[in-house]
Amino acid sequence: MSEAVARVKPDSASLTREAAEWLRALDETPADAMPEPSVAEIGQLRAVVGALAEAYYVHDAPLVSDVQYDRLFRTLQTLEARFPHLQTPDSPTQRVGGAPQERFEKVTHPVPLLSLANAFESADLRAWYERAVRGLKGERPALTAELKIDGLALALTYEDGRLAIAATRGDGYTGENVTANVRTVRSVPLKLKGEATARMEVRGEAYMRWSTFERLNERLAAAGERVLANPRNGAAGSLRQLDPTITASRGLDFLAYGLGPITAEPPPTQHDTLDWLRDLGFPVSPHRARLDDIEAVVSFCEEWAARRDELDFDIDGVVVKVDRRDLQERLGAIANAPRWAIAFKFPAREATTTLLRIEHNVGRTGVVKPLAILEPVEIGGVMVSKATLHNADYIRDRDIREGDRVVVKRAGDVIPQVVGPVVQARTGTERAHEMPAVCPSCGEPLERLEGEADWRCVNAACPAQLRRLVQHFASRSAMDIAGLGEKVSALLVDEGYVRSLPDIFRLEAHRERLTAREGFGEKRVENLFAGIEEAKGRPLRRLLFGLGIRFVGETVAALLVGAFESLDALAEATEDDLLAVGGIGPEIAVSVAEWFGHESNRATVAALKELAVNTRRLPQEEPAAEATGEGPVAGKVFVLTGTLPRMDRAEAKRRIEAAGGKVVDSVSKRIDYVVAGSSPGSKRMKAESLGIPVLDEASLLALLDSPPAAPTGADSNAAGEQADLFADPV
């Protein structure tokens, strides 16, 4: 253990430093390999863990991420288990949570709301199950698995079917009376359906949906108020408002997951309990399963770890329970957790770290984006040292400052973002952010168009823009030029080989100089030129996307190519002509017309034609004929969601329409099929809840009775303004 860890001070800034010291010490020596700590050392760790728990549970102001807190808590558990004489009755490991706030009336829970033991790997789940089997004398029980919503635990007491008391979990033994606020949560029934039991306690989770959270933050920012860090804190803070009308305006939800004390005979299993609660009028999770063995549970957990982004609310794991209530009673509980249940925790997607400085990068369309340079931190197995800050308004609304401790989020493969500052950890040395007045690449003044959040450099000769544009032009979704990545693009621009996009196709003139450069060589240059030559024949929609016209992504490019047979024809189109194309709105029409209105851009198109780059629509890009009402899917209605492995969405739409079907945007009961690729979002989930068949690409092609198209290389990728952020700063 590091001797640099000093006595915990009462201020939050000191506390976060103390926690960081312990985490660094654990990087050097895992808890199970540490020597016996002194009474003072383990007392110090107890103080850190206890203070962090108080900040999280009592004040709704977490100072570290959940995974970092879990790591410190488990370290304390490990040390106390290895050296039992160092354990004390007031240790955080012997408690369930934090103390209730003084401003609410206290409520004593008739039966404690215990916490759950955590499993972080499938091996932990299997070990827990085998312990349960041993406790049941060899009987191998069936299990239920339910998604673990990241919200605030509540205990709702009903008397004769009417809501009497709503209390927070508090420390598990004493909570806070938040009845007036909970009555405003629409998903909490005030009167139960069916025959009422004299008295019963229903346990569940209050939470805030992501869509609700985002709308609320927009409202708070517009009112000049501090925005919320995440939905979990939004839910907790909303329930602890002294004015219930504020709680009512926050749009909270509730999900029931179990029973406390009850005067009637409860259902015999957890699965039956959830069905019964649903019949009484409580919302219960539709994403649950009764499973016969632990391997099925492991599969369930792995599936939802991959699918968590489909949901409109945060889940941080899966709760696994022995299904039969009589077996739960036989297994019993230890001091603060039941033996018959466990929480499988997903890999972390948030962490706290220090925002060292804010840099500014110039994208391919001239947008200047602020970029957070962070003290490196691990999130979900990936070391993160840079994160997006979106724009100047985002930084201002959240009062993010250089030097702040900040919460950083990484969701799936999405670029990490700074969620907000840990205000309680400030020392007074933090520095407010200011957008630069001039472009950090070329020095030209930055402009901000009315109604837009971004500042941009309008200098067409800006070197940073050209570097990003060349990289985008060569990306897989555009011209797919092998060997022309970020570093080579920057070199070609910085060394003057490429001053415009057509210069890419003139590089043959520099063959000898390139071959002689260190790190290139004849073979590498030969491969680069072969990739450039092959790119000349790419479909028009990919060239159009590669030009980097504002608002023209892959889908818009395909729509425009379906309506205009060449770049020359598109160049002559008016805004009205463009607006006549289905799916093209005013912003896109103005952007495309303005781009082709610049003489330098017309010269680019002319030069590409002279260099034998294809600028006309290819046969496979021809628009589908009008549906005739005939074909293998005549009259069927489809919704497309996610990224298909071989077809882009425009091509899938053309194929469906050519086979007699129709494609619409939203899922409803009148839909016949949903076609889902990777990262399908909520549309797949809604389809499953409505019982609508979900097809993958292969199933769609089989239904259409047509062979798959040859791969076009039009895979979705992250080339664009957000990816530009993570290139080397200018």
Question: How would you concisely characterize the structure shown here?
Answer:
The protein is of the alpha+beta class and about 725 residues long.
What does this structure look like?
The protein is an alpha+beta fold and 730 residues long. The strands form six sheets. Strands 12, 13, 14, 16, 17, 19 and 20 form a seven-stranded antiparallel β-sheet that branches. A five-stranded mixed β-sheet has the order 2-11-10-3-9. Helix content is 35%, strand content 18%. The chain has five domains: 12-94, Helix hairpin bin (Helix Hairpins, Orthogonal Bundle); 106-345, DNA ligase/mRNA capping enzyme (D-amino Acid Aminotransferase, Chain A, domain 1, 2-Layer Sandwich), CATH 3.30.470.30; 353-456, OB fold (Dihydrolipoamide Acetyltransferase, E2P); 463-619, 5' to 3' exonuclease, C-terminal subdomain (DNA polymerase, domain 1), CATH 1.10.150; 625-730, Rossmann fold (3-Layer(aba) Sandwich), CATH 3.40.50. The longest helix is centred in the first third of the chain and has 19 residues, at 39-57. The radius of gyration is 30 Å and the shape is globular.
